[in-house]
Each structure stands twice: as C-alpha cells, then as structure tokens.
Write a structure and sequence with these properties.
Radius of gyration of chain A: 14 Å
Largest sheet of chain A: 6 strands, mixed
Structural class of chain B: mainly beta
Oligomer: heterodimer
Shape of chain A: globular
Largest sheet of chain B: 7 strands, mixed
Number of helices of chain A: 0
Strand content of chain A: over 45%
Number of strands of chain A: 11
Distance between the termini of chain B: 35 Å
Chain lengths: ~110, ~120
C-alpha cells in the first residue's frame, strides 16, 4: 500500500507563480525525499529532508517537514515551463529488518508559459 | 558513465508469454528495486533486494519473479500469471544500511504492452 499521499493530484499555474504540493505519510520516518518525473522518464532526486530537520532549501525548492502531523510540503518558487512534471514524495519503511522506499501518488504540475 | 540501465525500452508481450526486463547498475549499490507505474498513477513496489541472493516481495509481487545473482543485476520476469501487465516498469538502486540519507537512483524505465 502507498504510504505517501500527495495533494493536490494536479496543479496548473502560470509561469512565474509559486507551486506548492503536499505529502502525507503514515509511519515513522528517518527521512523524506522528493522526486521529479518527466513524462515517460525515470524519477530524479530533488531533495532529502531528515526527520530532525524542519525546513530545507535547494535553489528554487523549499521543503518543510512536520513529523507531528506526518506531512511535508514542496514549494517551487518562480516556476518555469520546464518545471512541468510529476512530483513524488518517498519515505523509507522498515519491515522485519529490511527496508523499502514507498512513493506517494504524485502531483502533476503544469506550468503555463 | 555511472547509472542504471534498463532494457528494452519498449516490449510487447503476447498473451501467455513470460518476458524479462533487464536492469543493470554500475553504482556499486547494494539495494535494488522494481516498481510498476500505471498511466497517471504513482509507483507501486513489486520486489526489492538488499543483498545478492536475497530479495523480498513488495506490495504487488503476484505474477512477477526476480533474481539477484550478481550485485549489478536485478532482472524482473513478468509471468503469464500477471493478468494485467501493461504498464511502465522502473528499476532503481540505492546504498543499503541504516543511514538516513540513502538517495534512490532510477533507470529510464521500460514500457511493456500486451498484444
């Protein structure tokens, strides 16, 4: 079952605007990661935030993490048409001594030029 | 170049056939994963492996099989028991261990279509 759930499922904005997408998860985590996927391609890592961090920045990306609410948000500032893609959050779940990465359902972002 | 190579990019399967998707990595990663993605949907974990000669079922393992005979390779076989195999398949890898910062690296994916 999917641990992460992103919302909104789809988002359409104008170039230059900010885009915010949210991720909720169910279990305790060591870290939460955000990935980007262009249509028909593999996923590319964007940013990782550890469970003891509350906010992290990377270029035009800002990620927040609220472990009490089991949620994270990804903010893309000054969006560009090239930011059009699907964005996924991922968390690591531990089961019987093994671990696996669980991805959310994704937010499809469309940036209009 | 370092990375993950999936092949073939496009594959067509007839009803009742088994097909194998290849995944090779030269990143010296211990852990490897297979995900299935249906159009417009998220990723669902099929199988994962943290060490050679060992692997675990993910959330949707029925109708699939894997092997991990070499660290670099993690092929996925879609068997005839998988009734709805048409999807985009993604292979990934990462370092293992309990470190908090293990980024996952993905291949470019393989499209499988049943004809």
């Amino acid at each position: 079952s999917q641990q992460g759930e992103e919302d909104p499922q789809a988002l359409s904005i104008q170039e230059g605007e900010n885009a915010t997408m949210n991720c909720s998860y169910k279990t305790s985590i060591n870290n939460l990661q955000w990935y980007r996927q262009n249509s028909g391609r593999g996923l590319v890592h964007l940013i990782l935030i550890r469970s003891n961090e509350r906010e992290k920045h990377s270029g035009r990306l800002r990620v927040t993490l609220d472990t009490s609410k089991k949620s994270s948000s990804l903010l893309i500032t000054a969006s560009r048409a090239a930011d059009t893609a699907s964005y996924f959050c991922a968390t690591r779940a531990t089961t019987s001594g093994t671990y696996k990465y669980i991805f959310g359902t994704g937010t499809r972002l469309k940036v209009l030029a | 170049d370092g990375g993950i190579t999936q092949s073939p990019k496009y594959l067509f399967r007839k009803e009742g056939q088994n097909v194998t998707l290849s995944c090779e990595q030269n990143l010296n990663h211990d852990a490897m994963y297979w995900y299935r993605q249906d159009p417009g949907q998220g990723l669902r974990l099929i199988y994962y492996s943290q060490i050679v000669n060992d692997f675990q079922k993910g959330d949707i393992a029925e109708g699939y099989s894997v092997s991990r005979e070499k660290k670099e390779s993690f092929p996925l076989t879609v068997t005839s028991a998988q009734k709805n195999p048409t999807a985009f398949y993604l292979c990934a890898s990462s370092f293992a261990g309990t470190g908090a910062g293990n980024t996952i690296y993905f291949g470019e994916g393989s499209w499988l279509t049943v004809v």
